[in-house]
Structure formats: structure tokens, C-alpha cells
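User: Design a sequence. Structure:
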């Protein structure tokens, strides 16, 4: 096992005597029983689940019709409301390929 004196006397626990037979008997019983219906079949057969689904669809449809729509006002974009940024920040944040005042790149170079 191990050369460590604390772990030298430790051994793995043994398998219970009737475990194999019990497991095989449970597997045989499960295989012999009829298959359990899947979740969708059980939901379709459940009257309360169908009623809950119909109620939620009806609630959403009524809420969509009754609740007033929020009118969107035509507003100027937020960027136009703000002041011009600091010139140092503007020079760093400006993309050269979109700036008409930027120097052209050398032939074959990337911007």
C-alpha cells in the first residue's frame, strides 16, 4: 500500500457479500417493468399542466393588448448632447483611417 507509517495499516473496505446479487435483481426487475412515459407525455396527459399553460398564454395575450405601449420620443443621440472630449483623449481615441486630418500611410503599410 504505502510506505507512510500512518497509512500502512489502512486497507480498502471490502464489497458487501450480497451486493452483486441485489444489484442484478434490481436491474432484472427494472427491465421487466413497462417503460415510464417521458416528461412531455406526462405533461400532455396532465390536466393541471395544460390548464396552467392555457392560462399563461391567455394572460400574456391580454397583457399585450391591454397594457399601453410606451411612446418613444425622437431624441437626439446621447453623443451629441455631450461636450467635446478633452483634446488629448480625442487624439488618442480618434481612428486614423476615419480622420480626414490624419497623414496617409505609406504604400503597403497598414493603418
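Assistant: Done.
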Amino acid at each position: 500500500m504505502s510506505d507512510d507509517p500512518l497509512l500502512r495499516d489502512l486497507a480498502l473496505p471490502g464489497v458487501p457479500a450480497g451486493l452483486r446479487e441485489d444489484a442484478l435483481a434490481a436491474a432484472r426487475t427494472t427491465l421487466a417493468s413497462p417503460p415510464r412515459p417521458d416528461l412531455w407525455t406526462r405533461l400532455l396527459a396532465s390536466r393541471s399542466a395544460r390548464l396552467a399553460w392555457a392560462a399563461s398564454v391567455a394572460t400574456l395575450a391580454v397583457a399585450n393588448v391591454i397594457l399601453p405601449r410606451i411612446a418613444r420620443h425622437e431624441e437626439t443621440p446621447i453623443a451629441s448632447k455631450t461636450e467635446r472630449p478633452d483634446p488629448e483623449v480625442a487624439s488618442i481615441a480618434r481612428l486614423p483611417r476615419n480622420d480626414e486630418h490624419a497623414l496617409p500611410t505609406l504604400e503597403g503599410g497598414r493603418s
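The CA atoms of residues 52 and 86 lie 58 Å apart. Residues 37-66 form one domain.
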